[in-house]
Structure formats: structure tokens, C-alpha cells
């Protein structure tokens, strides 16, 4: 059988910085015959006043066919290496031969959903879309046209006297659907609903949101209207991990586009949608490729 030379094992590690980490990892892989095809490193300058500094981050990509054992054995052996680097070390070993899974949460706005569906259909995103869940049925047809299951979970109206209980019930149904697929990513593709704190905790490091603003500016609702009222010359979008702090999770990717005094709010919304598509697709790709390492409320992204 012809060896799969395209298959890769991706190793990530973050730990308190010290001398010898790179040599230990490189020596471990070399001793096993591992062929490193990509290696990224980042070392923070330690500071006594900031406990989040003084950390080391790396992402290593190894040809799977260069190792004499499978990914499970690699994990077992690398666990011993990570243990030598201290109990605070966090690490992962992923196999590109196993396609990652994602579930999308949507509302009515179609632009981010259309973009992701198109990129998946074109083979541009390394993911299998397991399902799309919407609190409206507006986008059901386009989802099913791509052969992806669509689930409608309605939310109570704003004037519903039992709105709080109804929202919790709706999120319980969403949680059950999502966890049934055990996804690597839960993407809020303009979902326009605030996740309850318990889901933020359960989905930490997996829930990804696209915010239509260059955070931390103009957080919350209607950011383009806020930007128009402020007379800004740049608008943008932010892809970030979801936390219980609204629009304040670790940032994965951001981008901006220039506007001027002649642009209306509608112009800003239209241009902003273009940036949202790009920023979300980049952020999701980097997450799926294990390029994003989270430390505190910051990220290291090996692009």
C-alpha cells in the first residue's frame, strides 16, 4: 500500500518557559524518526508584575508516515515529555487524517453561513459540517441544499411572560443536539443570541463567534450604527472564543476596511459583511488546524 505522505500529526504545547524545551521536543521526535515539516515557537518575556507572561508555546507538524507508530502511541509517548516540562503544561496531538467536526448556530442573516457552506463544498475548510441549528427557519433551505441537517429551535418572543424559562429550555435542546455530534467547533455564525454561562463553560475553547465590530470598540448590539454615529474611518470584524463575558473572549482574528463620510449605515453594514466572512473563515480554519493556543484571555496564533 502506498504510504499517505500527506497525513500529518500536529503537536501543540504551552508551558512555563525554561531552557531546553525545544531541544527536548526535537530530540524526542528525531529519536522516533519523525520528519518535522512545520515548526512554530513563541516565548514570552517573563515579568514579575504579570503572571500571564513567561510562557512558551509551540506547534509542531510531523509527517505521519515517518513515525513507526500511530497517533495513539504518539500521544502516550508525548505525554511523558510534557510531564517532564511541569504539571502546568497543556498539550494536544491531532491527526489530520481524522476530519474535524463542526456545528453551526445561525439566526436569519445568511452571509456567514453561505460563505462557510461554500468553502466546505469547495474543500477549502478541513471540516465536516454535522448540523446547522437555527432559532428561525429562514436559512433551512440553503442548508439542506448542501446536504447538511438543519434543526429549528424557536426562542420565545421578547414579550413572552415566560421568556426566561423558554430561553433556557431552547438552549437545553440546542445543547443536546450539539453534544450529540461531539464537535470540535461550535460556530456562532451570526447567531444573535447570548449563550448562557453554563454553555460558555462547557464549550470553552470550542465555541467561536464572529462579532461585527473591531473589538473592544462597539461591543454589543448594532455596532455599525454605533460606528456611524461616532464617525469612524475604519470598521472591522472580530472572530473570538465565546466566554461568559459578552464579546470579551480570547481573540483569534480581526480585520478592518476603510469607510468615509459619504458612507451610510447601510454601506457600512454591506462592507462589514465582507470582512465578517473573511475573518470568520480564517479564524475557524486556524482553530481546526490547531494553530490557536489560548493562554488566559489571549491567544498565540501560528499562521
What can you see in these coordinates?
The mean pLDDT is 92. 32% of the residues lie in helices and 27% in strands. α3 (111-121) links the parallel β5 and β6 (127-134). It has helices at residues 21-31, 71-84, 111-121, 140-145, 163-179, 197-202, 223-230, 265-288; strands at residues 8-16, 36-43, 55-63, 90-95, 100-106, 127-134, 150-152, 185-188, 207-211, 234-241, 251-258, 292-295, 298-301. It has a seven-stranded mixed sheet with strand order 7-6-5-8-9-10-11, with helices on both faces. The chain is globular, with a radius of gyration of 21 Å. The chain has two domains: 8-95, 2-Layer Sandwich (Alpha-Beta Plaits); 100-301, 3-Layer(aba) Sandwich (Rossmann fold). The chain is of the alpha/beta class and 303 residues long.
What CATH calls the topology of the largest domain is Rossmann fold
CATH class of the largest domain: Alpha Beta
CATH architecture of the largest domain: 3-Layer(aba) Sandwich
Mean pLDDT: 92
How many structural domains are formed by the residues? 2
Low-confidence stretches: none
> What order do the helices and strands follow?
EHEEHEEHEHEHEHEHEEHEE
**Any idea what the shape is?**
globular
**Number of helices in the DSSP assignment:** 8
Strands side by side in the biggest sheet? 7-6-5-8-9-10-11
Q: Which superfamily, in CATH terms, is the homologous superfamily of the largest domain?
A: Formyl transferase, N-terminal domain
The largest pleated sheet is described as: 7 strands, mixed
Head-to-tail CA distance between termini: 33 Å
Q: Percent of residues in helical segments?
A: 25-40%
Extended strand count: 13
What radius of gyration results from the CA coordinates? 21 Å
* DSSP strand content: 25-35%
Helix/strand structural class: alpha/beta
